[in-house]
C-alpha cells in the first residue's frame, strides 16, 4: 500500500515503533506515557492529538493540551496542523498560565474580581509590597533596616504555599496547631509564633494583591483552581467541553497544576477521565520553580486504572552515551519510577552510530577552555564538522565566559542563549541613561555613559577629564561639559557630541513636563536618530537592537500608567527600584539558522540535541552546584509528598547532569579543571565518577598562578553574530492579517513593523479603540452565556481597560472617555433590543495554506436565518451607511474581512454568507456578501506575502498616498512623503 492509498489515520501511524503506536492509539481512560530522552515524546503527544481528530473520536474543540512555554505550544500546534490541516480550529493548545489567565478573566465576576487583573513580575510584586509594608502585619519579621531581602524570602514562602495548595486559612490553622502542641517548650513556642506571623502576612498579601487588581503568575493557576472547585457548573462545563486532556512535560507540574488537571479531566466517578500525561522523572529539573516529581511518581495513585506506556527506543544518542547516562541516573534510586514501580527505563539506542564518551582533565580553567575551542576549531578547519554541530554546556551562565573568549580568539562563530538581560543591552542602557539625565541633570554617571555611547561619540579622554573635574569641583558633569564645550576646551568630537546631546536634552526636559514617559522615550529615540539608524541598517545586530528598544517601550507603556504621575521624574526612580529588586527582562534573541557553536546552560539545553556536546567545568561545587541556604523555610509539615531538601537538591542536580549528557548524539566530552580560582584544587564532579564508574580521584592542593588569576578578570566575549538566513522551507511560517496587510501595502513597511519591530508611540485612538473592544468582548461573552449584565458593568469594564497614554491633555482624555461611555450606552441599548445572540465571540482561528500557517481571531460570529455572518467592530468615525458599505466591500475584496472569510471556509469547510463592519461610534453597519472571488483573492494575498517573507525580500514600494499615512515614514529613507523616493 502506498502512502496515497492510506487513510489519514494510517498515515499518522506510519513509521512509529510499537511503544509509540500503543501510546498514540490509546482509547478511553487515563494514560501515563513515560518518555525517556530522545524517544520521540513531542512526536507522540502531537500524533495522539492528530489521531484522535483523524479517527473522529472527538471534535477538535473537545481537545485541551497544556504545556509550559509558548514555544512548545506553538511547536505542538504546528506539528498537529501538518497532519490535520483543516482540523485544529477550536482545539485549545496552550500554556498553563495562558489557559488559566483566560479562564480567570472570563469568569472574574464569579470571584468578585475585575476582569482587568494585572499580572506582575516578581520585582513588581516586591516593589508593591515595599509600598504596603506596614499592612502585612509584621512584627518580628518587620524588615525596617533593609526590607528587600526579607520581603523576597517571604514572597518565596507565599509562592511555595500557593504551589502546595495551602490557603492562608490552612496556614493559620497549622500555626495554631503548633501553638497548642508547644506546651511550655520555649523553642516550640517561638516557632509557633514565627509561623503565625508568616500566616497572617500571607493572608494580608493575598488580600492586598486582589484589592489592587494584581496577581503574579502563580496566582493565575491558583485562582483558576479555586474557580473550578467553587463553581460546580463551571467545572462540569469544562469537563463536558474537553473530552480529552493532554499534558506535556508532566514532571514539571506543581501540586496545584496537577489538582487543576484532575478537575478538568475528572477523577473517580466525575468526568470522562481521558487524561494523557507525558513525562520523564529523570528529566525533572525545575524544582526551584515548584515542580514536583511526585506528580509523575504518584500518577497511578490518582488514577489506579491508568494505562502505562514506557518509551525506550532512543533515536538520538549512541549506546556508549546512553549506558553511562543510565548508570548515573540510577544513583537517584529509590526515588525513581524505574525503582519504585519496576519499569525498565534503560534506553535502547536506535541509531547506526555507537557513540563516544571521553573525560578530560585540565590544570586550569583557561587550559580547559583553550583545549575545547582548539578542538572545535580543528574539526571545522578540516571539514569534518560544522560550527552548528557543537554545543558547550555548563551549570551556570558565568561558567561559559572562558569558552566564549577562547572561541573568539580562534575565530569560531558562536551563539550564547539566555545570558543577557534587557537592561544590560547597549541600546537600552543608552535610552535609560538619557532619561536619567532628564529626571536628574546632576546624574553624572548617566551623562558620562550617554555621551560616551557611539550615537553621540564623545572622546573617551575628554570624558575621563570631565569626570575627574566634576568630582573635584562637585559640579554636575553635564553642566561642566556644556561650559567647556562653549569655551572650546574639548576635542572636535566631544564638542559635537555635547552640542547634540545638550540640544536633545533641552527638548526632552521640556517635553517631560507635559508628556508621559513613553512619549518622551519616543521623542528621544526618534530625535536622536537612533530609530532611523537601526531601521535602515539591514543587519541582524540592528534587528535585535530595534526589538530590544521595542521591548523597552512595552515595559514603560505597561508600568508608567500605574504610577501616580506618569512622568520621567517619577518613572526613573521606580524603574531603578525594580532593577534593584532584580527585575531584568530577557533581551530579545532572534531566531536564526546561523552556523555557530551553541553556548548554553544545561537548563537551556533541555529539548535540544547536538552531534557533539562538551559538558564542561565539571568541578565539585560547580556541577553539582552547592545548595543555597534559606533564612525562612516553608514548613515540612505543609509539603505534599516526600521532603528532604538536601537529598532533593542532589537528585535534581544529578537529573540536570543526565539531561546534559543525553543532549549528545555522537560524541560527549566531559571536561574539568583543577583550578577554578580557589585556594584548593577543585575535585572532579562526583557525577563524572558515577557515570563512568571511575575510582575517586586523588586529593591535592593547588593554587592559581598570578597570570591565571589576572586572566579571569577579562571581560566576557559577546557572541559572533552571523547573518540570519531566509526562513527554511521545512520551517512553518506563521502569519497574521496585519502581517499580510503590511506586506501587501509595502514590503519595506513589513520589515519595519515585523522584522525590526521599530517601536511607535501609542496613539489615543488606539487606546480608545482597545478599551471599547475589551468592553464589548466581555459584554458579548456574558450575553452568550446568559449572564445578566447591566450597562454599568459594561462601562466599568471599559473604564478598567482605559489607558491615559498619548492624550494631549486631561481635558482631551476626559472628553474621549465620556464619548466612549455614550457610545457603549447606545451599543448596549441596541444589543438588548436585538433578539440575535452571537454563536461565538473572540474565537481564534488557525489554518494552513501549503506550508504556511495563518492565525487570527474573529470578533463575533452570528448564525442567523440567512446563514453565517462574520462581524468585526470598528471605532473609526464613519456615520454614512454608504461609506460603511463601501469600506466593508473593500475589506472583503483586499483586506481583513476577505482573510477572515477564507479562514472560516478553510476551518469549517463552508464559507460564511456575509461579513459586516459595525461602526459602534455611530451605530452604522456595512454589509457585503461573500463570493468565491473574495476567497481566492485572500488566498493569493497570503501566498504572495508568505513567499516574499520566506525569501527575506522587503523592497520599498513608495507611494505618495500610502507613505503619507505610514507610521514609519519619518524613519524611512524611501518615503515618498519625505521626498526620499
Give the strand line-up of the largest sheet. 3-2-6-7-1-8
Tell me the overall shape.
globular
The CATH class of the largest domain is Alpha Beta
Task: Report the biggest beta sheet as strand number plus sense, adding barrel if it closes.
Answer: 6 strands, parallel
Number of helices: 39
Helix fraction, binned, reads: 40-55%
- Could you tell me how far the N terminus lies from the C terminus, measured between alpha carbons in angstroms? 59 Å
CATH superfamily annotation of the largest domain: P-loop containing nucleotide triphosphate hydrolases
Radius of gyration computed on alpha carbons: 30 Å
Low-confidence stretches: 698-704, 720-724
Strand content: 5-15%
What's the CATH topology label of the largest domain? Rossmann fold
Q: How many domains would you count in the coordinates?
A: 5
Return the average pLDDT rounded to an integer: 86
Q: What structural class results from the helix and strand content? A: alpha/beta
Number of strands: 22
CATH architecture of the largest domain: 3-Layer(aba) Sandwich
What would the keywords be for this entry?
single chain, 981 residues, alpha/beta, Rossmann fold, 5 domains, six-stranded parallel sheet, 39 helices, 22 strands, 49% helix
Q: What does the model show?
A:
With 981 residues, the protein is of the alpha/beta class. The protein folds into 5 domains: 196 residues, Rossmann fold (3-Layer(aba) Sandwich); 66 residues; 176 residues, Rossmann fold (3-Layer(aba) Sandwich), CATH 3.40.50.300; 159 residues, Orthogonal Bundle (PCRA, domain 4); 187 residues, Alpha-Beta Complex (Lambda Exonuclease, Chain A). Helix content is 49%, strand content 12%. Strand 2, helix 4 and strand 3 form a beta-alpha-beta unit. The chain is globular, with a radius of gyration of 30 Å. About 1% of the residues have low confidence.
